[in-house]
Amino acid sequence: xxxxxxQPTDRASSAAVVAAAMSVLYSWYVFFLQGKQRRxxxxxxxxxTILAFASYLxxxxxxxxxxxxxx
Length: 71
Fold this sequence. Notes:
- There is one protein chain.
- By secondary structure, the chain is mainly α.
- The protein has one domain (about 10-70).
- It has three helices and no strands.
- Helix 1 (about 10-35) runs antiparallel to helix 2 (about 35-45) and helix 1 (about 10-35) packs antiparallel against helix 3.
- The model has no long low-confidence stretch (mean pLDDT about 90).
- Keywords: Membrane, Plasmid, Transmembrane, Transmembrane helix.
């Protein structure tokens, strides 16, 4: 990691973690407070998808960086 500051992928990963945490809280709200169990479970499936997509993007970026360094 560079010492110049946060890289774009670091900020994207942080945003993905925040989005995943917010969707967990929202799913709990919908499930418990609104009483809509099915919708709460559906929203509860979003965090793994968000984190998997962020991981894919980060890995793709790492592969591209490694390929550039090898050239």
